[in-house]
Each structure stands twice: as structure tokens, then as C-alpha cells.
Amino acid sequence: MTEMTETTPGWLSPEELESARARMPILYIDAVPVRVDETGVVTRIGLLLRIGADGAVSRALVSGRVLHHERVRDALMRHLEKDLGPTALPRVPASPQPFTIAEYFPTQGVTPYHDPRQHAVSLAYVVPVAGDCRPRQDALDLVWFTPEEASSPLVQQEMLGGQGVLLKQALAHVGCLS
């Protein structure tokens, strides 16, 4: 009997992922990148510009799956680097605490969060970044908004799947909504 060595631990094939998504919730992280001033007050919120599978352009938070046997902090760092680039310099504490937990359902209306592919549970974080952010992977751009601009109806309507609601919760959490 020959032993096979797993070369990509934690990754599922597309077929295995589709099967898992149909049977159980998948763990995700959502991150709201922010710039803070010298006193720690949030001055800017970074939102990604993406093109969806249907060709629609939208604004988005940093988001992604937590892999099997991956610490949540490591997943957070991996997705921040993947979307913002290696020089973003995120300041993630050793033991990060989410500001909320968002539960995405494939059926609209169960919660404000919707993902047609799956039932997903996402731990949501506000993450200060101090470095140079250069979007990578499937992100077209990263735009920095003031808290007022980020909570505006115009920006909110550009966000899909309830991420606008999640953004407003993040802004409230850091004291940026009146």
C-alpha cells in the first residue's frame, strides 16, 4: 500500500467544497480595513472594488474562508495580504476579537446577510492597516472613504449580500456613526 502525501492541506477540491457547502455552514472572516489617527480614531475605511461572476461591479470588505487546521488570526492575515498586498501592515492583535458574527444564508431574508452559494458563519473584524495597500487577486481597486462617505446610501447600495449592514455595524462599533 502506498501512502499519499497531502500537498495542499486544508483545501478542498471544487467538488468537495460544493458538497460541503450543501451540507454544513462554512467558517469565514470579514475584515474592515481602516486608517486611524495618532489617537486611534478611525479616519478612513478601505473598501475593495470587485467585479462579480455576473459582471456587476460592487464594493466589498476583505473576506474569505478559514481553512481546516488554520487559526482564525492566520486566516485574517492571509486574506488581508491576499486582498491588500504584502505591504499593507495590518495590526491584528495576538488574540483578535470579532466585533460581530454575521450569518449568511442562501435564502434571502433569514438575516440581512445573503450568500446564494451557502450557509456561512463569518467572524467580523475592524483591522487598522498602516502600510501601502495595493489590491491584488480579484480586487480591481481599494478606495479609502471617510466614515460619513462609507455609511452613505450611495456606498451602501454598491455593497452586496448585506456587507453594507456589516460595514455600518463596524462603523458603530468604532464610534463613527452618530
From TrEMBL:
The entry's keywords: Hydrolase
Keyword match Cell membrane: no
Molecular function as annotated in GO: hydrolase activity
Source domain of life: Bacteria
InterPro entries the UniProt entry points to: DUF4916, NUDIX_hydrolase-like_dom_sf
Entries under Gene3D superfamilies matching the protein: Nucleoside Triphosphate Pyrophosphohydrolase
Keyword Hydrolase listed: yes
Protein name, UniProt field: NUDIX hydrolase family protein
Lineage, highest ranks first: Bacteria, Bacillati, Actinomycetota, Actinomycetes, Streptosporangiales
